[in-house]
Design brief:
The complex is a heterodimer of chains A (297) and B (113). Chain A folds into two domains: 12-76, no CATH class; 83-294, Rossmann fold, CATH 3.40.50. A seven-stranded parallel beta sheet of chain A has the order 8-7-9-6-10-11-12, with helices on both faces. With 297 residues, chain A is an alpha/beta fold. Chain A has helices at 83-99, 114-125, 142-150, 167-177, 218-221, 223-228, 247-257, 274-294, and strands at residues 13-14, 17-18, 50-51, 54-55, 73-80, 102-108, 131-137, 154-158, 184-188, 205-211, 231-235, 262-265. Chain B has 113 residues and is α+β, with helices and mostly antiparallel strands. Chain B has a domain at 2-68 and 102-112: hypothetical protein PF0899 fold. Chain B has helices spanning 2-21, 41-52, and strands at 26-34, 61-67, 70-73, 79-81, 97-101, 105-112. In chain B, helix 1 (2-21) packs across helix 2. Classes of the chains: A alpha/beta (297), B alpha+beta (113). At the A-B interface, strand 5, helix 1, helix 6 and helix 7 of A face helix 1, strand 1, helix 2, strand 2 and strand 6 of B.
Chain lengths: 297, 113
């Protein structure tokens, strides 16, 4: 990577090879001096410090970044790109804590069985505590309709072209849902193992769902999500006898990414492992309620 | 494509700053992106150009500084450079490595008029 401007080879790989390789392998990387012509260390789509034909590096207002532009003003910002989302997430988290709400952010690839899991969870917990659901999908109200049919209030967020829910969307949805005190809020994120990892919604935990009809190495392929999660549900375990999926290997891979990740093997359709999952949820709800009563707002 | 949302967040930060500091035009934007952040730089560059169009940062130059991934082994406490999240500790082989650097995404500074 060029230490002057940070330009370098992208991380997109095609058949294992970098998409762009502006520098020949083995060739020494040249720092700071960006000359025109044959001695170019790596071609730039932009120029540094070319002013009146004079190359002037390092003397400008921007220090090492952009020499020769001292006539312009520099403003230091040092602000996290996700700061705004994190502010909204903190507001959501405050609301959850004030009202004793246990909020879970369920993330997975499309088709891992999130909605079926929610429907079964709602059915099993029916009558024991108030439950609400926020559904995220690019299009359609189908999932929210399934949840409502299962007996819980649900609000569908359609993200349109968006690939994830963000904290602002969830905050807006929370206002419309009129969440009850000491309740459980299940947020089903858009089916996507990449983008939702970066966006805190204010939840207590991210729960990643991996189904045995996927590959064992998904945790290695999509490490950010497995690192961000606190619990992994290995779903559709009733199908294991018919598949070549190595469940131990999948768990091992997940623990390489996140050694503290708790794993529960379940099947939402057959009911296997559901007792442990429901117990985990119930304990989270009790703790959220307990914390609220300990520190009343 | 969460890079589009990230580019929009960058624009929000730029516009907030511009309003407070009486800026009329943003010429260059410096971002610091960690090697382990969930960001594809080429994609972010593309989204940046699209999102900045017709804003105060129209045609602003985007400069990205990449910071290296750094980890600390929870078992033997050594620190090491890491390029991916699934790497094992070169000393003891443990996978219990905490990321201590290289996952940041920040707007560092702006060149403005």
């Amino acid at each position: 990577m060029c230490t002057t401007c940070g330009c370098g080879i992208g991380q997109t790989l095609i058949a294992g090879h970098a998409l762009k390789q502006p520098r020949k392998p083995g060739e020494a990387m040249r720092y700071r001096v960006h000359e025109e012509g044959a001695a170019l260390a790596h071609p730039h789509t932009h120029q540094h410090g070319v002013l009146d034909g004079v190359l002037d590096f390092g003397a400008g207002a921007a220090g090492t970044h952009a020499p020769g532009i001292s006539q312009s003003r520099m403003i230091k910002i040092e602000r996290d790109i996700l700061a705004k989302n994190n502010d909204y997430a903190a507001e959501n988290r405050d609301t959850f804590s004030t009202h004793g709400i246990f909020a879970l952010n369920l993330v997975s690839s499309p088709g891992s069985g999130k909605t079926t899991l929610l429907v079964k969870t709602i059915a099993a917990l029916h009558g024991t505590l108030p439950i609400a659901v926020i559904e995220g999908d690019q299009q359609t109200d189908n999932d929210a309709a399934r949840i409502r049919a299962a007996g819980a209030p649900a609000l569908q967020i359609n993200t349109g072209k968006g690939c994830h829910l963000d904290a602002y969307m969830v905050g807006q949805a929370m206002q419309q849902l009129h969440l009850q005190d000491n309740s459980l809020l299940l947020i089903e994120n858009v089916g996507n193992l990449v983008c939702p990892a970066s966006f805190d919604l204010g939840e207590a935990h991210k729960v990643v769902i991996l189904s045995v009809t996927e590959g064992e190495d998904k945790p290695l392929k999509y490490p950010d999500m497995f690192r961000a999660a606190d619990l992994m549900l290995l779903n559709k375990c009733d199908l294991l006898p018919y598949l070549e999926f190595d469940a131990d290997l999948a768990v091992d891979y997940a623990h390489r990414i996140n050694p503290k990740l708790k794993v529960i093997r379940i099947s939402a359709s057959s009911g296997e492992g559901m007792t442990e999952w429901l117990g985990w949820v119930a304990m989270g709800c009790r703790n959220a309620t307990h914390r609220r009563t300990e520190s009343p707002a | 494509m969460h890079e589009m949302s990230l580019a929009e967040s960058v624009l929000q930060i730029i516009e907030d700053t511009a309003r407070k500091q009486g800026v009329t035009r943003v010429k260059t934007v410096w971002l610091e992106i960690g090697q382990l952040a969930c960001v594809e730089q080429e994609s972010l560059r593309f989204c940046f150009d699209v999102v900045m169009r017709d804003s105060i940062a129209h045609q602003a130059r985007l400069e990205i500084t990449e910071t290296a991934g750094q980890g600390r082994c929870a078992k033997c406490s050594i620190e090491m450079p890491i390029a991916a999240l699934y790497e094992a500790c070169p000393n003891c082989g443990s996978y219990e490595i905490h990321v201590i650097g290289g996952d940041e995404m920040r707007v560092k500074e702006l060149e403005v008029e």
